[in-house]
Predict the structure.
Amino acid sequence: MKNNIKGILVTIILIFSLLGCNLTPASENFYDEEIPQEELGSYSFGPLLDVESDELIQFRYNGEEIRIPYHVEGHGIGVTSEFAWFVMVDGLLQPTRLETIEGEIFRETSEMHNFTLEFRERLEFYVVFSPISGVIGERVSFISGTLLRPDFIPESLERPFFGIFHSLSATIPAEIYINSEISASFSSYFSNQLKEIPQEILEYDAYLRGIEIDDIHIYLDHAPRIGFFPYGEEIVLDYQRVISTDSATNANVHLFLYGGQEVTSRITLFVNHIPVRVNGADFIEIEMERGKMAVLNLELELTELEHFNSLYAIMMTTGEDYHFQDIFKTRTVLLVNE
């Protein structure tokens, strides 16, 4: 099989100390910050399918598991490449099983799979799963992504920077046609708590991007902003790097979201790369409107926390609107258990 899919096959080049660089447009990267200086690996990942570069990749779910030939490969000369790999279907984190080309299981069903690859180390396998979301007759998105160096955690509050670590890279979406009933169950926290975006935030965003305030809505149509700020505080303009909690089994945070297309999105929150329940639900679902901002008060249900932990959210459009907007990730913030 040949990987001749332009746009589906993703190659990430991350070598030496990438000061000020971000090669992952799917991540939120509106504010510069210090980046840990060390050599980073490079890698590629993507399906192994013989299709034209501009052809929409389509799969069908007929009640049997979907099997997609796939590859990951390390490219960093003399550098180990470390990343977490995952799949999202219809805006939700999709558990997958990985099988060798010969049909043997080499990764049990999990929501994320970690890889450590040396130079030119290549793995080819089948991604096997039954979709967890979608109704008969619907076409939903399939997208795969990676998080760079998922094991990285800052060592002190003096330098609470994740930099390019945990940054998201993703393939362009493929499509799954749902032709059979799906039995998976989950719960959503739906919110339409929208308000006008404060003028001072629009002005600050325009200032940071070096554009006129009259042009900010045009920019935001293509660049949604999503992030956290501490519970009990007013939303602040500068990006938060640290959020503290006084409990090891739950945490309260605020999440803000504005910009992007007028689509319905699903937001999953992760602590230490594990999806957590939010306000008693598996994920947040929200319908955005142009010029509006959502500010949500969230309670995270956690397992026992360490002192330093990672917190981020991944937002993915649900339904067929993924053609207009697909996947975004907040920056990772340091969640401190006090």
Notes: The first strand starts at residue 10 and ends at 12. The helical segments are 199-209, 216-220. Residues 78 and 119 are 7 Å apart (CA to CA). The radius of gyration is 20 Å.
